[in-house]
Amino acid sequence: MDRMVYLAMTGAKQALQAQQVTSHNLANADTTGFRADFNTMLSRQVTGPTLPTRVYSDEVGGGSDMKQGSMVSTGNQLDVAVQGDGWLTVQAPDGTEAYTRRGDLRISSGGLLENGAGQLVMGNDGPVAVPPSSKIEIGKDGTISVVPLGQKDNAMVVVDRLRLVKPSTDNLRKGQDGLFRTVDGSTPPPDASVHVVSGTLESSNVNSVDALVQMIDHQRRYETYVKLMQTAKQNDETGQRLLRSSGG
């Protein structure tokens, strides 16, 4: 019985964890620039002093789906979407450098450029500070230009440039805060080949229909494992009754 119960127990546990990953993806189907997470389950042998007669189910990190989401035109002068490969650089809550595709930018009350999640957007010299202005433009190369208050429309002044980077996707991992960081801890330099489209946002790459199908599949798998545990219990009870009968 213990072998069947152990396998069913670990399988049910991992099915619930896979359900959590899929639910998280579905909850972010409308989050700008979101990258869906993968989940993968493997069968592993239980190691110990005896022969490997048991296996358990183990969920391994499947990484993130790097496929680009759809481009949605907004007309907002502060919205930007990264074309092709490349990332916007932001300041993580712990002060370190991190990367995102979320380009719904805004100017905070302190005059600093941040995205919709409240993360400071980094320029070539640190967080981007935007002075009071009547107009702001973000060029294809990430150059941020403004018309200072009281100046004519043709008096554009360059204030900074978005720090656009292009690290290898194999060297990127998503953290619990949804931001990507390099696995080896390196800091990629600005890449002039990365371009942005102003007045446009990149939508989440989560396919809602696929996510719903996955949720149903995870639920059915969990129910199967629970039934397997119930069957193991019934088999054990039947075996005990037979032993008692033969002993009487």
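Above is the first protein from milestone M3; the second protein from the same milestone is given next.
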Amino acid sequence: MAGVSGTLLRRLQSVLNAAVRLVFSARRSDHITPLLLELHWLKITERIQFCLCVLSYRCLHGSAPSYLAKTLHLTSDIEARRRLRSGSMSTLFVPATRRSSLGDRAFPVAAAQAWNTLPVSLRTASSFLTFRPQLKTFLFNISFPDN
């Protein structure tokens, strides 16, 4: 997610797990999933996607810094793609990159990819106050599909 290596993601998840154990005074051998569920905390990969999508929403609605906002473009704003079916689905244009190892880490690429994975109902949310909790619920269901 966002160009972070699997090793680093595991390390970050380990830090999050340690924080959960600290909150609950749990032992290292205790299962972490029920504790994450009780706190309603996202796993690291979904947490990264959450941050990218929130920032994308703010960019699209004018409440993010302009230097970030001008890097994201709706597919419908691009003349060559306006007539495509994706032009009416509020997706973001994902810029082409030369190197997947570095280019996919760039904000315009990572944010557009994260945004485009969201359901249409989330991408077209009327306000930030409705978008954010719906996004967290959506990503929470991805983190913990059985609950």
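Note on the second protein: The helical segments are 6-24, 33-39, 44-60, 66-69, 100-103, 107-116, 120-123, 128-143.
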